[in-house]
Amino acid sequence: MRKIVFASAAALALIGCSKPTVDFSGATADWPVVGQNNSGQRYSALTQINRDNVSHLKPAWTYRLKDFSSGGESHGATALQVTPLVVNQSMYLCTPFNRVISLNPESGEENWMHDPEVDLTGVYTPACRGVSYWEGQPAEQCQKRIYLGTLDARLIALDADTGKPCEDFGDSGAVDLTQGLGDLTTAEYYLTSPPLVMGDKVITGAYVQDGQRVDAPSGAIRAFDARSGELLWAWDPVPPTQTSVTAADIKQGKTLTRGTPNAWGLLSGDEARNLVFVPTGNPSPDHYAGEERGDLDYYGSSVVALNADTGKAAWNFQTVHHDVWDYDMAAQPVAFDFRGQTPAVIAATKMGHIFLLNRETGEPLFPVEERPVPQTDIPGEFTSKTQPFPVKPKPLHPASLSENEIWGITPWDKQYCREFFNSLRYEGIFTPPSFQGTLAYPGLGGGTNWGSVSVDPVKQRMVVNLQIAPFTMKVVPQDEVSDVSGGDLVGLAPQRGSPYAVTRSVFATEWPDMKPCVEPPWGKLVSIDLNSGEIIWERALGNLNKLAPFGLGKFFPWGTPNTGGSIQTAGGLIFIGATLDHYFRAFDSDSGELLWEQEMPYAAHATPMTYRLNKDSKQYVVIAAGGHGPLGSAPGDALIAFALED
């Protein structure tokens, strides 16, 4: 692997300066939750690696997960999105095939491996973003546990020390999450994100396959006893006017309400206030909201606060009304204290809108305006007359596009893109799907996606990465549908049970180039002052390495579409992969200056983490680099730990 450093570090080497002395004093820290803590801040107080010495970061060890695939008849290409945990003096992670692995955090040597032998049939993108850790009382059976949500809809508990199933949990270590869901089609319901552990409860959301049918399985949130696996409560996300299905009902054989919003991203929690924050998707199907959908939009595309003991909704804030764009809340809500005293939570959206909310009430901390938006012309469909727009922070993604702004690398590309643009309906953000074909800008992949944001609670700054990747959507009457195949983001969404299917594609040049028809940057990294709501700095994220011929792409810092997230440290650093260009980077958190970058064997579409086991050990930064098949980056299996050179 090749390391690239800025000239300042190179100049030191040329004049014979010695390597930096590694500081073995200061803080130590685990990384016990995927988001570092249940608040999801992705922040570390470690300072051994800092802005002054990060240029001397080197690979310390590499572990190969082995589980990756370019896809085939049974399942799609893998995406390596895992953030490992370091707790209990061990590292814990999962592979895209749901194997759970424990490693020595300082050497990368394997302690144990558990293979739940999941059925991957029909899974569009095998992925696992992480596992969860729980610790009970001394002398309890299976006192330290790792929890995994699987791609065949199981919740598994493993002994953290041995990797063996906890026999007292569910049925010999596993709970069947299909209980209460009714009939399911193949790979229609499964988990890609880790469950949230709050006290002695394990709380799950789930992925529900997009755009398939009106009566898709329920998106209910459920809590299970951490020891026994007993179902404690279920939040059935129906409007308050409708009778919800409870945990007691499920135990009596009742089916949860079908077609309700789900939460496939990470949940977060506030232990002091006993609240769980749920980022919801839109009701089924994604791109149609006529009478067949019913009145299930009440909790759609929202942040919902639930009581952790009962599952009752305390408040909800909707980021999109009557969502027909698939602008679901993918990002984990992130808790912080606004101006050091008001409990707050961040809702980052696919539209590039950032809503700062009081986490006790859900009320916005900065003004939010309801603004008129374009209306549907599809018979039987209806759309909200207004949508919420935050005044601060200002929207991070462009909200409009004109013909004069259409872009192409060559005159032929530009002409193709202009003709494509003129063939579509487009009246700005929230232009609804149409028979003609609609430009969705922002695209349904974001903006901001599951990587969410990171927060420095000391400096009161958040950092967010987003992509500029427009999509198209075209409504097709059901009697004209001949091909019902489709993927998660592109292809046909059949929307069975509604009058219309919808085709989805990217607004880009022709295959195989597939360059966005909008001017770079196509990926951005933005820092925001949480006290004022003002942008501190923003910069392009990524270059065209691996995307342009003859090795010239690295000289084009145009940003790339990206997925994954960032972390921040007290050493004044932001670490992030996420881009298509195979680089892992460190930025100065004050200025946004790029301080270090390392080319990886595969693109790193995961969120990194950092830890230091004791005062005599090094600080490590770890990133999973294994590509993302559906994004077009080659699948792989590298987990790489970095530390300062000796």
Task: Describe the protein in words.
With 646 residues, the chain is mainly beta. The strands form eleven sheets. A six-stranded mixed beta sheet has the order 1-38-37-36-35-2. A four-stranded antiparallel beta sheet has the order 3-41-40-39, with no helix packed on it. Mean pLDDT is 93; it is low at 1-21.
> If helices are DSSP runs of H or I spanning 4 or more residues, what is the number of helices?
3
The average pLDDT value, as a whole number, equals 93
What is the 3D form?
A: globular
Q: Tell how many strands the DSSP assignment holds.
A: 41
Low-confidence stretches: 1-21
Estimated structural class: mainly beta
Rg, please?
A: 23 Å
For the terminal residues, how far apart are their CA atoms? 18 Å
**For the largest beta sheet, what order do the strands appear in spatially?**
1-38-37-36-35-2
Helical content band? under 10%
Main beta sheet strand tally, sense and closure: 6 strands, mixed
Strand share of the residues?
Answer: 25-35%
Question: What are its keywords?
Answer:
single chain, 646 residues, mainly beta, six-stranded mixed beta sheet, four-stranded antiparallel beta sheet, 3 helices, 41 strands, disordered N terminus
Q: Helices, strands, pairings?
A:
Elements: E1 3-5, H1 7-14, E2 43-44, E3 57-64, E4 85-87, E5 90-94, E6 100-103, E7 110-114, E8 132-135, E9 144-149, E10 154-159, E11 174-176, E12 189-190, E13 196-198, E14 201-204, E15 207-208, E16 221-225, E17 231-235, H2 247-251, E18 268-270, E19 275-279, E20 302-307, E21 313-318, E22 334-338, E23 342-348, E24 354-358, E25 368-372, E26 386-390, H3 411-422, E27 438-440, E28 453-456, E29 461-467, E30 471-477, E31 491-493, E32 500-506, E33 523-529, E34 535-540, E35 566-569, E36 573-576, E37 583-588, E38 594-599, E39 609-611, E40 620-625, E41 638-644
Parallel strand pairs: 2-35
Antiparallel strand pairs: 1-38, 3-41, 4-5, 5-6, 6-7, 8-9, 9-10, 10-11, 12-15, 13-14, 14-16, 16-17, 18-19, 19-20, 20-21, 22-23, 23-24, 25-26, 27-30, 28-29, 29-33, 30-32, 31-32, 33-34, 35-36, 36-37, 37-38, 39-40, 40-41
